[in-house]
Design brief:
mainly alpha; single chain; 0% strand; Growth Hormone, Chain: A; 75% helix; globular
Amino acid sequence: MANMQENQVVNHKDKYHRAKLWQIGLFSLNNAATNLYLFGFGFVSFYSTGLLGLTALIISQLLGYIRIFDGFIDPGLGALIDKFDSKFGKYRPLIVIGNIITAISFIILFQTHLVSDGWKFPVLILALIVHKIGYSLQASVTKAGQAALTSDPKQRPIFSMFDGIFTALIFTGGQYFVTNFIYPKFNEYSSAFFAEFIPMIIVTSAVLTVLAVIGISAKDRIEYFGIGENNAEIKLRDYWPIIKNNRPLQTLAMAGAFVKLNTQLFSDQVTQMLIFGILFGSYQLSGQISLIMVVPNILISMAASAVARNKGLKWSYVTWLKIGTAFLVALGFLVWQAQPGMLDFGNLTFYSVSFVIAYMCGRQFSTSPSGLILTMAADVCDYETSESGHYVSGMMGTIFSLTDSIASSLAPMSIGWVLAAFGYGAAYPDETTALTPELRWVALIILVLIPLTANILALTFMKFYTLDRETMENIQTKLSEMRDAKDAKEAELIAATEEI
């Protein structure tokens, strides 16, 4: 605990600069603020089919293409972050601007049904584009700001611990709150439902954003950016060589993309409806199981952070994926046997207990590494600084967002494709839809087969990721020498001549 409370003043005799525990906790709320919008965005499918009259296949493909657009604007946002500077710092203004843009996009997006018929689709497209710009800007700072927050390899995983707690509260606690308090008031995703739900998202996210700004404020200064005044000047032509030559960036970004795909698949509201509303016959079960999962999910996230502090981030990342893969196999057998009424928390059976354990562990161990990526992005950024002298936290963060966005675009698109392949392309199934052999296959493919494939691919890429705990300690030693160099030229010489 003493390390966590270390004074944050840069001491060049110490190779690390550290943050206080409360700073790490508050800054992690920036990811919580954007995750709230990600949770709310999961209801766009039902809004679009129910209030705008779009088919399930059209909206699933549209949401996929919008995420691809999001991915391609991310590198530009990364360059903006790297170049941006103001009297209020590099990161804080961008956090606030991103949150404001995202709030405006949600206000427009969920009012589209009030627009005349000829303008509904263009306004929807515009709102989705604006949303992705604001969301990506704020979310990119979460990854970019990691390197400035702390450089201590033992302290960095603490961010993942906080983030895991808040992510569990948002996605599992939020699911329970919606399905057991808001949805039952209306029994449909109506305009009245969204009129109550969306303002909650906007206001809560704004409060979390203010707290995140407070958390990063003392660290949002040049002395915490890479090697400080000795950072090499970055130009646009430098970006491609960095992307081409940085192997840890390439491998981690690809592995993270497949984990992100799993995260999107499990949290998608259509998936929740398929599992609980159709396989087991009660959509409210999704909220109840989410409530059951809150504490175990938090404990799993805390365990991942504790393991990462002792074994390193890479070891924790790979181990969690392996455990998740094993539980997904078990989940597949249980999904194949599922019938309406078999999952009843008021009358526990061997099957229901087995399903809860397999679902909870398969989902959490397969998706919690996405929280570790936020911290590992800082390791990749430090690796690049040690190799070239360039501090490009913004570009690093948005490269991860690029692969995240492209992979996560496959989530709604895959759901739409699978449903259409089994004859459900016109409308999403709901609680009134009878369980058929075709829908069982849909659930098995979306809930088990795709996540299993994603886990195996992520593990394959992680075999080529070299930034383990020992390597990161060597990198921080090298960065300390570069920081103490008399000027940027000497720092570049150290980067070019000293091996890690």
